[in-house]
Automatic annotation (TrEMBL):
Key words, A-Z: ATP-binding, Isomerase, Lyase, Metal-binding, Multifunctional enzyme, NAD, NADP, Nucleotide-binding, Potassium
EC number: 4.2.1.136, 5.1.99.6
Keyword Membrane in record: no
Summary of the function given for this chain in its UniProt record: Catalyzes the dehydration of the S-form of NAD(P)HX at the expense of ADP, which is converted to AMP. Together with NAD(P)HX epimerase, which catalyzes the epimerization of the S- and R-forms, the enzyme allows the repair of both epimers of NAD(P)HX, a damaged form of NAD(P)H that is a result of enzymatic or heat-dependent hydration.
Name under which the protein is recorded: Bifunctional NAD(P)H-hydrate repair enzyme
BP GO annotations: metabolite repair; nicotinamide nucleotide metabolic process
Domain YjeF N-terminal: 19-219
Residues that, per the record, bind AMP: 410-414, 438
Length: 495
């Protein structure tokens, strides 16, 4: 039996529908029966529990009505054999089980295993979720949702088999009272819905167990997305030739900082410098000039009030970052329409208020990277945050299509979508940080574009470096990380 598992995740990402469609063929090509596959899945989880918790721990397995429950009965049977005190609490009547799941239930009973109803959770140390896996197709029904609310509130270690119940492995939608796992062991291939948004946090630590059929599976169908990893992101960083000078490393123009919003402009422009741009200019409200320049003499800061003044600056730059602290007043509108209407090709990063203004007058764009958080994405799509979070994958694709742009949808497991590519970011989230993190991200992406990295790769490397910097700059779980704390880490990562 192969019980290999790891937190090193593969880069190839699939939909649960692809798993449903091709896993049987992959198993067949690997000479493995479906029953053996279920046995491998359950044994892997049992092995994982043995590796992490000794047999004095009391375990309860919650079972459902499909094959996920079959995995759960294998876990329970194997742990009992290893001396654990294990019970199964069926949340769907066991007589409805079919096929291999029914067989695994029979084996559990025959081995002396016991089912309980309405268990007292405080008696157990570990709860194993074998209710729903990739077969979840609607919200959790009342009795199951009620049980999971209690499980989530209890002081227990929660381990999900394949998918935390209540998480939609396709859309990343998290239904009410979904199982809040400390660890999730997922099988055969990575499912997109576990990697982004709230679903990502709902999985806790994600472990991948290929069950020794992943290669055959990869031959059956093509991945729908790519999970970026450290090595590939580091390879895509711009390389600066030793003999080069400032004019070979791009010129970013940051159009930012309405009245009273100098900080956002400074964060974005300093981030562009710290990410290796040769020259960085800032076009801002005249009252901000001194504040932005203070302590960062490398920035060329211009107070701008007219389209002509901005056009003169656009001529010198090769990339424009527009939006941080821009506001939505007449001045801001004029700045955005001048940038979007500029006749020569300039790569552009649109962030913050540039996105809010764009949402008021949607249009197809050229050479743009958009970096919305879910609320800005909702405005751009005339939708709601709930709808965006209920299907981050479809929404980022819709944005990329409607605006003809590369779109980076922020949040845990940031998504980056261009016409032909979907990438999921794997580095940390900055949920505990203060404001200004987005400004830094737009500056980093602008810098990468200015140094010749493609729009899609700039957004991917930017998201990765930004997330990793947030992770490294703060100790785990600590609040109070400042956006400017990222600068030294970004420099070290990009340099
Ligand atoms: N194929 C294999 O042999 C292998 C499979 N493996 C394992 O199997 C898992 C997939 O199994 P699965 O396809 O049976 O789906 P699963 O998630 O167990 O549940 C489906 C059942 O739930 C029901 N249902 C759905 N949503 C519901 C809701 N909200 N509320 C109430 N009911 C709901 C649905 O009912 P229906 O829609 O038919 O009414 C159906 O009865 C996979 O994740 C992995 O763990 C591994 O062992 C490897 C080998
Ligand atoms: K599960």
């Amino acid at each position: 039996m192969d019980s290999h598992y790891s937190t090193n995740l593969p880069q190839l990402v699939f939909t649960p529908q692809q798993l449903q469609q091709y896993e049987a063929a992959a198993a067949k090509h690997s000479g493995v029966s479906m029953q053996e596959l279920m046995h491998r899945a359950g044994s892997t989880v049992a092995h994982w529990i043995q590796q992490h918790y000794d047999e004095k721990k009391r375990v309860i397995v919650l079972s459902g009505g499909g094959n996920n429950a079959g995995d759960g009965f294998v876990v329970a049977t194997e742990l009992r054999q290893q001396g654990y005190d294990v019970k199964v609490w069926p949340l769907v009547a066991v007589h409805t089980l079919k096929g291999d799941a029914a067989t695994m239930y029979e084996r559990f009973k025959q081995s002396g295993g016991e089912c309980v109803q309405d268990a007292s959770l405080h008696h157990y140390h570990i709860v194993v979720d074998a209710i729903f896996g990739i077969g979840l197709n609607r919200a959790l029904p009342e009795p199951i949702a009620d049980v999971l609310a209690k499980v989530n509130a209890a002081k227990v270690m929660r381990i999900a088999i394949d998918v935390p119940s209540g998480v939609d492995a396709h859309s990343a939608q998290v239904h009410n009272n979904a199982f809040n796992a400390h660890h999730t062991l997922t099988f055969i291939a990575l499912k997109q819905g576990l990697l982004s948004g709230r679903a990502k946090t709902q999985c806790g630590h994600l472990w991948f167990a290929p069950l020794a059929i992943e290669q055959a599976f990869y031959r059956q169908c093509s991945a729908v997305a790519c999970l970026n990893d450290h090595a590939s992101m580091m390879r895509k960083r711009p390389v600066r030739d030793q003999g080069s000078h400032k004019n070979n490393a791009g010129h970013v123009l940051v159009v930012a900082g309405g009245l009273g919003m100098a900080g956002a402009a400074r964060l974005a422009s300093e981030a562009a410098l710290r990410t290796g741009t040769g020259l960085v200019s800032v076009a801002t409200h005249p009252d901000n000039v001194q504040t932005i320049s203070q302590g960062c003499y490398e920035l060329m800061v211009h107070g701008v009030t007219t389209a002509q003044q901005l056009t003169a600056l656009l001529e010198k730059a090769n990339v424009v970052v527009i939006g941080p602290g821009l506001g939505q007043c007449q001045w801001a509108q004029q700045m955005l329409s001048t940038v979007l209407g500029y006749e020569h090709k300039r790569l552009k990063v649109l962030d913050a208020d540039a996105l809010n203004l764009l949402a008021q007058h949607p249009q197809r764009l050229t050479d743009c990277v958009l970096t919305p958080h879910p609320k800005e994405a909702a405005r751009l799509l005339q939708s709601s945050v709930t709808e965006v979070e209920a299907n981050r994958f479809a929404k980022v694709q819709e944005l990329a299509r409607s605006y003809q742009a590369t779109v980076l949808l922020k949040g845990p497991g940031t998504l980056i979508c261009s016409a032909d590519k979907l990438t999921i970011n794997s580095s940390g989230s900055n949920a505990l940080a203060s404001g200004g993190m987005g400004d830094v991200l737009s500056g980093i992406i602008g810098a990468l574009l200015a140094q010749g990295v493609s729009p899609h790769d700039s957004a991917c490397v930017g998201a990765y470096v930004h997330g990793l910097a947030a992770q490294q700059a703060s100790s785990e779980g600590s609040k109070g990380l400042l956006a400017s704390d990222l600068f030294p880490v970004v420099r070290a990562l990009i340099g």
